[in-house]
Amino acid sequence: MMLLQPSMDPNRKRAKSVDRVDSVDSGSESFESTRKCGFPDEVLERVLSLIDSHKDRSSVSLVCKDWYNAERWSRRDVFIGNCYSVSPEIVAARFPRVRSVTLKGKPRFSDFNLVPEDWGADVHPWLSVFSTAYPFLEELRLKRMAVTDESLEFLATNFHGFKALSLLSCDGFSTDGLKAIATHCKNLTELDIQENGIDDLGGHWLSCFPESLTSLEVLNFASLNSEVSFDALEKLVSRCKSLRVLKVNRNVSLDQLQKLLLHCPLLMELGTGTFMQELISGPVTEFKTMFSNCKNLVTLSGLWDTTPLYLPVIYPACASLTFLNLSYATLRSDELANLLAHCKSLRRLWLLDTVGDKGLEAVGSCCPLLEELRVFPADPFDQEIFLGVTESGFVSVSHGCPKLRYVLYFCRQMTNAAVATIARNCPDFTHFRLCIMNPGQPDYLTKEPMDDAFGSVVKTCTKLQRLAISGLLTDRTFEYIGKYAKNLETLSVAFAGSSDLGMESVLKGCMKLRKLEIRDCPFGNAALLSGLTKYESMRSLWMSACNVTMNGCRALAKEKPRLNVEVMRDEEGSDDSQAHKVYVYRSVAGPRRDAPPFVLTL
Amino acid sequence: MDLINFEATELRLGLPGSSTDEPEIKSTTSPVNTNKRSSPEMDSNVSDENGSSRSPPPTKAQVVGWPPVRSYRKNILQGRKSDQPEMGSGMYVKVSMDGAPYLRKVDLKVYKSYGELLKGLQEMFKCIIGLYSEREGYKSEHAPTYEDKDGDWMLLGDVPWEMFITSCKRLRIMKSCEVIES
């Protein structure tokens, strides 16, 4: 039987090992074996089964052989951050009683078209193994995996107790696959379809839910384009008494939504359809009570096409909202201000930059409990229409929302001074993702690089786990990061740095680094190889359009056989000595056997 | 005639829509644009480190995968540009006329029929525009065309008005002689 650990002798000092299915273990310790201290295995298993955190379970499994075994038998949820780091056979061998699997596939930059189609991350081999190993599998959550209709049909017909399916940023399937799920999964509690590359062939899939299906708790089809049968939807919603999350798509009209809400008063999360009526003469008053029965609503999203006339319809629900996603509603500053005056309890807020700096001032004054803010660009490619938001909006928010932990901010201008102020106001940042949309743009007032901005973030925000940097940046930024960002786990870099020193500083200094993704930076082989001893403790490294060559990659691959060093060729095949796209990750499964022709494993 | 209209019809050499005292432009410095590469394969930005000088506005050459916005969101926003009203509850679309140096905007919701729309456009551009008919050909020197949701350029008048206003992304008044017969 294949075991993951190099040795199960509990008396030996246990070295840090790459043989993990899930996230990085927090450290290596040496342990003496405990005698079987009269603790029956069942009791140990029962105790360990109460532990949910993957990190904790990793630590637990390192204590000794007994604990390793008790942990693996009691493991119900498996999280696999990189589907190629391990094989389904290895997972099935180690964890015999799994009910829930989370799988992530392609590198994150595939979301931005940097990874060619047919790269891989096919879910089917996993399903094949699981159909025999985990016939009672209940939950499957996939992110950036390649999924086909055949796979969805296989899933629906081979796992009889299957309950929950979540697909985020996946591609390769169509609504026919959803038909199979709806038709065959008799105990379905969750169907969550988000932002996938799906071939939308029509809304008939929703009508495939049988009348006997009453177990649905989560239904999210907000990102699908085709209209579903409202009659089928209404009947489905009214017979699923435990429905707590409902996110419909844009085709569902306001009066249809009103009818739906009558059937699910227990709803906690709602995604509306189009939030206006064509005929302006239609009375808005008839919608005024729409939300008065939704006592449990904490999350609201959708709000497509909403106008100042209709937005107030949601006011009665606002006081208890903790998460408001307005990132598909082109609101202006005054509309947002009026709305936020009702939203005192907000913790998370997603916006479009159409609200402008004035809108963000309103955020600062109305939402003192805010922990997360995401501001998306309404017009990322066209500068003519909106300036969007600037440094001043961000500063306003930081003054009013000292509890901010998570920020994603797209803007067209920023200054070092502003970011320093923001960091001072909000020292608790754990996720700081700043995207100055023009690559390599300096501080627009001083014309200096933006080094000091990120320097102030890493110096002040000691809990920082995730950082995305942008603007004109020299190696100094990376020196700051390496020196101060001791808790940093994920770093995204684009169009930055001056030399190898930059990347080297980060690899040397950031002890907890797990994911590093770099594009269009002047980092070469020396930088790549400086991380030789580090990559096995990381999930992955991505480098594209840098100065790395094939020889550098080969050197890395040779030194570290437990890393998969993959190079993606450009179609033009212009310069074969340059490594245009490099993806390096640790794996216990060896080189990929399903690599397409353009992926070379060195 | 009131002063604003007079200004609007003034012929100038500037870019469409620009003027010397645009109220919307912030008084702070507009974003500095360094000579950044537009292709990911080009060399890095080392040379531009030391306080780049102001350069002309960047071309709209797009870098692959930048800014990092997911495809789903990008597609929604691009679709939105066509049918999302930009001001209040109107349905404003850009109108260009061949030969005119600047574009205008019209609110399609204000009109109830093609006839009304053409009248409005004629007043705006001070020209005669006629619908094409199979029998009579082009009734005037200018032909109205529009870009639909699929990105195709169509002649006005073939589809019912209600269908037209939901699918029209922008209008272009062409010289009749330049319209290619389909």
Choose one word for the global shape of chain A. Answer: globular
Structural class of chain A: alpha/beta
General form of chain B: elongated
- Classify the beta-strand content of chain B into a percent band: 15-25%
State mean pLDDT of chain B (0 to 100 scale): 65
Given as residue ranges, the uncertain stretches of chain A (5+ residues, pLDDT < 50) are 1-34
User: Biggest β-sheet of chain B: count, sense, barrel?
Assistant: 5 strands, mixed
Helix-and-strand structural type of chain B: alpha+beta
Query: How helical, in percent, are the residues of chain B?
Result: 10-25%
Please count the beta strands of chain A (DSSP E, at least 2 residues each): 23
Distance between the termini of chain A: 29 Å
Q: What Rg of chain A, in angstroms, do the CA atoms define?
A: 25 Å
Number of contiguous helices of chain A: 19
**How many DSSP helices of chain B?**
4
Mind telling me the C-alpha Rg of chain B? Answer: 21 Å
* Interface with most residues: A-B, 59 and 43 residues
Write down the secondary-structure element order of chain B: HHEEHEEEEHE
Q: For the report, how would you describe the main beta sheet of chain A? A: 21 strands, mixed
Q: In which order are the strands of the major sheet of chain B placed?
A: 2-1-7-5-6
Q: What are its keywords?
A:
heterodimer; A: 602 residues; alpha/beta; two-stranded parallel sheet; 29% helix; disordered N terminus; B: 182 residues; alpha+beta; five-stranded mixed β-sheet; two-stranded antiparallel ribbon
How is this fold's topology laid out?
The complex is a heterodimer of chains A (602) and B (182).
Chain A: H1 41-48, H2 54-61, H3 65-74, E1 77-80, H4 88-94, E2 100-104, H5 124-133, E3 139-143, H6 149-158, E4 164-168, E5 171-174, H7 175-184, E6 190-194, E7 197-199, E8 218-220, H8 230-239, E9 245-247, H9 254-263, E10 269-271, E11 299-301, H10 315-318, E12 323-325, H11 333-340, E13 348-352, H12 356-366, E14 372-376, H13 391-400, E15 406-411, H14 416-425, E16 431-436, H15 451-460, E17 466-468, H16 475-484, E18 490-494, H17 500-509, E19 515-519, H18 525-530, E20 540-544, H19 550-559, E21 563-568, E22 581-586, E23 599-601
Parallel strand pairs in A: 1-2, 2-3, 3-4, 4-6, 5-7, 6-8, 8-9, 9-10, 10-11, 11-12, 12-13, 13-14, 14-15, 15-16, 16-17, 17-18, 18-19, 19-20
Antiparallel strand pairs in A: 20-22, 21-22, 21-23
Helix pairs in contact in A: 1-3, 4-5, 6-7, 8-9, 11-12, 12-13, 13-14, 14-15, 15-16, 16-17
Chain B: H1 3-9, H2 71-83, E1 92-97, E2 104-107, H3 114-125, E3 132-133, E4 137-138, E5 142-148, E6 153-155, H4 161-167, E7 168-175
Parallel strand pairs in B: 1-7
Antiparallel strand pairs in B: 1-2, 3-4, 5-6, 5-7
